[in-house]
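Deviations from the work plan: none for this task. Representative record:
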Amino acid sequence: MKSTATTMDAYQLLHKGALALARAERQGIRIDMEYCEKKKAHLTRKIEYLTKKVEASPLYSAWSGLYHNKTNIDSNPQLSRVLYKSMGITPPKVTGNGEGSTDEDTLGKIEGVPALEWILEMRKLRKIRDTYLEAFIREQHDGYIHPFFNLHTVRTYRSSSDRPNFQNIPKRDKEAKRITRRALLPRPGHMLIEADYSGIEVSISACYHKDPVMIKYINDPSSDMHLDMARQIYLMPDLLKEGPGKLLRQSAKNGFVFPQFYGDYYANNAAGICEWAKLPSGRWRPGQGVASPTGGTVSDHFISKGITSYDQFVEHIKAIEADFWGRRFQVYSKWKESWVAQYQKRGYLDMYTGFRCSGIMKKNEVVNYPIQGSAFHCLLWSFIRLDEIMRKENWDTRLIGQIHDSIIMDVNPDELDYVKQVTTRVATEELPAAWKWINVPLSIDIDEYGVDQPWI
DNA sequence: GGAACTCGCCAC
DNA sequence: AAACGTGGCGAGTTCC
């Protein structure tokens, strides 16, 4: 049943992986240079306009009064001093070093200083221009970027990417996504596709802890762990995935379930969920928060259920956390304990994929490393195998990159159906056949982006 | 003038 | 008692 890998197997995976990734690096990704230059100039004009607005604000008067000819609108330490020392505002949040924070969340909480909104907008546009478009222009050669994919830099034996980093191109923010991804093109006459493993870290975690409740969630497509958690958190037993329930499910997934898997705890979760649901701190009043499927808003619903303040909500989430690990996923919880105990006894941990992590680790790291590492190794194995088939069968299609649980390909449209079929077979049949420790079904999604269309 | 640091922010 | 896992990178700043 076990038949896990040896150190030599792990070495072979790294060796073959490095070769397959090098071929993708050499292939590269086509860049629309004309677009990048045009958009960069456009963003620069917008940033200059916002700069002028800030310079005409009362905030800037205080700022330049402090710093004179050293005044720098891009300096967060300067902004922190102006707001929290000079203007006497109490910092809504502080950084790890005890300085008043100037991140988006914090500035958003400060009222009566309209220039802060313009500063946040400038920050966002600068990020898009300087981290992405400029990097594409700087790193391109003959119209193609060649991001590196490293296998030797990450403690968990995941990968990293640099020059430029191909693994952090915006996806959540609609505007940033559109502007940056419009710069990336397939070769002329080709198209881009992205094949991603669905919920691979959850599936791989189940291979380690073998929790029957989790395995049932994975095996039964009609069940939905995140929806069940949303029902429990929002005290709505009949909540549906569609309509207004969609946002509540998302808040449960990204505000509770995933953070809990990474080792977070209820107080942070309560804050996270309230951010999603737009619920305030302090006492709750009717009409606050996002729309509720039960009618009215979520604060209306919570008040009707007896939860009338943020503090009461924290206690509610505390009880849900205790239920999550003490009842729902108790086998998972026991595995975490014994896995940590085993590490403390031996001083190292072994992954099913043959890799060993040693050295001083925190509990959360001990639990997370094998899951994160092994999940990526599933992707790497699939990447190597696809690269092998692609070359043996002389495909015109090319592998061009990888983002931890997904593979990006530059596809000849005539080969599309076949490429999709082989990719699905490799990822969902060949891999589980090769690695016997995989005890749950794996599935992938393939997104297609049309001929000469941006990867969005 | 470069190394090392902090902070903020993008991804999984 | 503790309390979110893994990265890269740009800008500002400080140190040597």
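Residues 76-77, 95-97, 99, 101-104, 123-124, 127, 131-132, 158, 161, 165-173, 176, 180, 201, 372, 375-376, 403-406 of chain A lie near DNA strand B (CB under 10 Å from a C1').
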